[in-house]
């Protein structure tokens, strides 16, 4: 029995919508899913439909709708503790982050999807397709080795459910691997992979195992091979027709036509086609259009222009690698911050008094700390800090990115505190700082360090297009008998952006 068979409502409708999406007909599947959501009351049914609807919007390239669709799907999945649904959601979310050019968030979703799908006990067709979608996400984000591992997992799980291995051929994974090799200067390696894809196509045509959604991928592989001057007996034009309604399929058809114009000796026409119809940089990577321009110029005999276009393509490919390295460095920094936060039990107490998201003390521990300080007759500066525009972050990028921002802000605050100071997560995006024995001058210096450290963070990699800042205000406890509540109210009233 498949995962879908366990749902209480609309199983046939959901299976039909699923089949349509697998065959590249997301525009047809979308109204079916919307119809299910109008009448379904079962939480698991609604969660599944919302996740699949999120996937359909990704396939159709409707980027403006992704943040809202993911927020609704995430909320529904949260109410249904099922690892398959979580894995499928995160696989789609990684693709969505890729379309939004948010590599850091996409990588996070890849890890979460892999962990969730690995925890699924059933080896059914639905789980196999979850691994397939994760493989696609790995591939689009440039993790070609991990994509091959995930697609092998899809084949293994699918075989246990009675699905032929050919169902999970996934030629798009090898096509993106091939063009990535070409972008990095290994054209011979690219051609070897393209020839393997051609041979596979011949086998699938002979056995009638070709998935309709793969037509444009095979067509582009053949056309790209022809553009590089490597002849093939297969007809690329035949496979560049049909194949579904996704934005990626449309891009492949257009770029395939460009390649065929190059192969036919019409480089100027190919250049005009490239300029006339923009394609998403996410389909085959940002360097692909530049690499095709280089091939056009070379075919026309303009080797200087070809060299310049090639250098640009290589620079774009290197930029992607640099982004991955930046993400790795940021991840190490965040881990070190978390380790430092948890390392001082005398300062931060036991886990029951700790905020699980940031590792900082929670409101309860803050109150105990200040009560102890006041009972000794001491005074302290108290600061209230919050993230400027945090609501916008959640709306535009989703709650997951909001959580990542809070974790990074917690690390910033922890790093700039003086020895013996206390920092807690109070509520939402609000943090409270306690500086024992400090006055206005010390508080101002801490504010300055907070502003400098916040501005030094690479927020664009995490939430592109959304500036991040911190506002803070200060007061005192223990002065004139002022307690914590009064100090927090006074500090909050005087908040202003830190610079």
From TrEMBL:
This is Diguanylate cyclase (GGDEF) domain-containing protein. GO terms for cellular component: plasma membrane. One of its GO terms (molecular function) is diguanylate cyclase activity. Residues 378-499 form the GGDEF domain. InterPro entries: Diguanylate_Cyclase, GGDEF_dom, Nucleotide_cyclase, Rev_trsase/Diguanyl_cyclase, TPR-like_helical_dom_sf. It holds the Pfam family GGDEF. PANTHER family: DIGUANYLATE CYCLASE DGCM-RELATED, REGULATORY COMPONENTS OF SENSORY TRANSDUCTION SYSTEM. Gene3D superfamilies: 3.30.70.270, Tetratricopeptide repeat domain (1.25.40.10). One of its GO terms (biological process) is cell adhesion involved in single-species biofilm formation. It comes from the Bacteria. Transmembrane segments: none annotated.
């Amino acid at each position: 029995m498949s995962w879908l068979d366990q749902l209480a409502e609309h199983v046939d409708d959901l299976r039909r919508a699923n089949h349509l999406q697998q065959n590249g007909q997301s525009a047809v599947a979308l109204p079916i899913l919307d119809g299910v959501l109008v009448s379904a009351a079962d939480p698991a049914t609604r969660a599944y439909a919302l996740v699949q609807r999120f996937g359909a919007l990704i396939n159709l390239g409707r980027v403006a709708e992704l943040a809202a669709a993911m927020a609704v799907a995430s909320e529904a999945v949260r109410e249904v503790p099922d690892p398959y649904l979580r894995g499928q959601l995160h696989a789609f979310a990684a693709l969505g982050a890729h379309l939004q050019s948010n590599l850091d968030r996409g990588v996070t979703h890849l890890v979460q999807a892999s962990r969730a799908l690995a925890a699924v006990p059933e080896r059914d067709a639905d789980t196999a397709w979850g691994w397939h979608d994760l493989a696609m996400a790995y591939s689009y984000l440039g993790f070609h080795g991990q994509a091959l591992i995930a697609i092998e997992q899809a084949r293994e799980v699918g075989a246990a459910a009675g699905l032929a291995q050919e169902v999970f051929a996934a030629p798009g994974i090898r096509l993106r691997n091939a063009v990535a090799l070409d972008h990095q200067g290994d054209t011979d390696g690219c051609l070897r992979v393209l020839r393997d894809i051609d041979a596979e196509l011949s086998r699938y045509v002979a056995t009638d195992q070709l998935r309709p959604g793969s037509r444009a991928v095979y067509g582009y592989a053949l056309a790209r091979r022809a553009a590089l001057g490597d002849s093939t007996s297969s007809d690329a034009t035949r496979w560049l027709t049909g194949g579904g309604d996704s934005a990626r399929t449309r891009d492949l058809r257009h770029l395939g036509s460009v390649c065929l114009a190059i192969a036919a000796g019409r480089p100027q026409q190919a250049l005009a086609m490239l300029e006339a119809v923009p394609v998403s940089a996410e389909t085959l990577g940002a360097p692909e259009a530049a690499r095709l321009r280089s091939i056009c110029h070379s075919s026309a005999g303009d080797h200087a222009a070809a060299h310049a276009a090639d250098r640009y393509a290589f620079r774009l490919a290197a930029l992607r690698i640099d982004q991955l390295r930046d993400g790795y460095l940021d991840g190490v920094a965040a881990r070190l911050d978390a380790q430092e936060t948890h390392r001082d039990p005398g300062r931060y107490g036991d886990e029951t008094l700790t905020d699980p998201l940031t590792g900082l003390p929670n409101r309860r521990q803050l109150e105990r700390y200040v009560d102890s300080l006041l009972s000794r007759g001491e005074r302290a500066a108290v600061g209230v800090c919050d993230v400027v525009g945090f609501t916008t972050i959640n709306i535009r990028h989703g709650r997951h990115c909001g959580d990542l921002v809070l974790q990074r802000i917690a690390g910033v605050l922890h790093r700039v505190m003086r020895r013996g100071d206390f920092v807690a997560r109070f509520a939402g995006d609000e943090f409270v700082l306690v500086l024992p024995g400090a006055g206005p001058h010390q508080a101002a210096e801490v504010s300055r360090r907070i502003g400098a450290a916040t501005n030094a963070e690479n927020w664009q990699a995490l939430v592109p297009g959304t500036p991040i800042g911190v506002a803070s205000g200060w007061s005192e406890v223990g002065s004139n008998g002022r307690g914590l509540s009064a100090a927090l109210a006074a500090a909050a009233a005087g908040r202003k952006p830190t610079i």
